[in-house]
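Let's do one together. I've listed all components of the complex below, 636 residues spread over four lines.
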Amino acid sequence: MKIKIFTTGGSIDKAYSTQESRLVVAGPQVANILDEANVTIEWEVQSILKKDSLELTDGDREMIVEQVRQDPHRHIILTHGTDTMIETAQALSSITGKVIVLTGSMQPAAFQRSDAAFNVGGAIIAVQTLPEGIYLVMNGQVFDPDRASKNLVQNRFES
Amino acid sequence: MKIKIFTTGGSIDKAYSTQESRLVVAGPQVANILDEANVTIEWEVQSILKKDSLELTDGDREMIVEQVRQDPHRHIILTHGTDTMIETAQALSSITGKVIVLTGSMQPAAFQRSDAAFNVGGAIIAVQTLPEGIYLVMNGQVFDPDRASKNLVQNRFES
Amino acid sequence: MKIKIFTTGGSIDKAYSTQESRLVVAGPQVANILDEANVTIEWEVQSILKKDSLELTDGDREMIVEQVRQDPHRHIILTHGTDTMIETAQALSSITGKVIVLTGSMQPAAFQRSDAAFNVGGAIIAVQTLPEGIYLVMNGQVFDPDRASKNLVQNRFES
Amino acid sequence: MKIKIFTTGGSIDKAYSTQESRLVVAGPQVANILDEANVTIEWEVQSILKKDSLELTDGDREMIVEQVRQDPHRHIILTHGTDTMIETAQALSSITGKVIVLTGSMQPAAFQRSDAAFNVGGAIIAVQTLPEGIYLVMNGQVFDPDRASKNLVQNRFES
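Okay, and this is what the predicted structure of the assembly comes out as:
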């Protein structure tokens, strides 16, 4: 089994630009996380977008769906901003024959305190243990995109 | 669903004693990890041992088995040292009707670089998605304790 | 000797707002840094502003100068954003009889990799070892505000 | 001005050996710390020992003194274990014409929470601002080795 990981940006990949005094979406953090955990299952990371998920256009989402559809791997993880993770998961619903898990983080992986490694750890197990389908892994739970919502006050996903 | 987490010590819980200039097994780190990830599923942590897993006696292992057997929860995680995690998992094999996941870390959770949050994230998902049985979650994989071994050179679990 | 520390905001105090998906100036980080280093000299932190230093107005700067002037302590540190740290240092130049050290960080203290603790460590020593005057401590050096500039390309202070 | 940094081991340089399940003195951390702070003054690191300071022999200490004496630089920092930092500082007292600052950390630099960067930041400033002599920089203070002691209960240096 080999896990294919598409990265699209979002909080998980934000780094601080000292020149601009603000956060920018930087290169994918997920490879660092997998290396730090010495993950021995085969995996491959491909960066297909570097955007805050609020800025994703319909065209971006179509591109993501096409990339996932055409990818030969059965086990697929997408790292994604949390604000529109559910919309992207729903857009992927026409794809069959794959286990697709979306995850991300509320706090950037570059921060001392972050949910990034925890969430990616959960996504890596979920993609191996769940049957064919589209799922979100956030806050220690597996969510069905059709029944999940992001609680903007509590900053967490709920079903 | 509520997840019961027993902690037994091991590298994951080691902290630096400045007075002794060495590492000691300190209080459980898993609650910090779950708080940092804002885990919304119900969970409860109980510390039953604070030992390096090489120092676990037969009596310690019997006590662990009894604690797990008598616990009313179906979904159980044990954090444990990696050196004898497999032995403890095998000792638990007589218990039925529960999903039991053992995890830990190669690098203490207190270090800047550690696999602790990643592994706990995986264990939390594994205990919810796997059927009844005893499992190890390490290095991004679910292992059957009867087929797993710790590779002491590569510092990782293999099957 | 007691060191008085005024905090004014800047990168050093930025935290990630998950609700707004951006950085905001949060509470002062300097007390955490001093606690983590178990600093035994007496110190006191007072937050007088929480602003990105590019947003400081002339009125803000006058307020800062008045706070420092009226403060009874001889040894004073200001944590401050780096973009206008030099301007504030120059505005303080009319104050005599005090050792005043401005510091801050290029990367927020909340990041895994940050110059915050290093810079504060330098400022704490500088304020005790330097004679009366106004100084910047950044990038491992003590700068005279009248001869320093921030190199925006290299992201560092130079003289 | 160029700062020469000799490293001798101690808590600051301890890393976790997953194979031995214990801490070992690893390569010097001070270069990482200086890089992270983008230190622009010229510096050079030389590792001359990798020992817990309780294990330093008289011969080790003589070697350290000779290295420092023969070094052509005027500004010298030693990173050192805290338990016998004072003894080594006193052994260096016959050296004149140099500014020599000893520092280290109570918690290893590899830990999430550590005084290492703070202390090195202080030592870098102290070596530039202090007159010729031998000093300890720990806990936010400059200590005279002849009047300092390590409080083993409070884990801090005092004078």
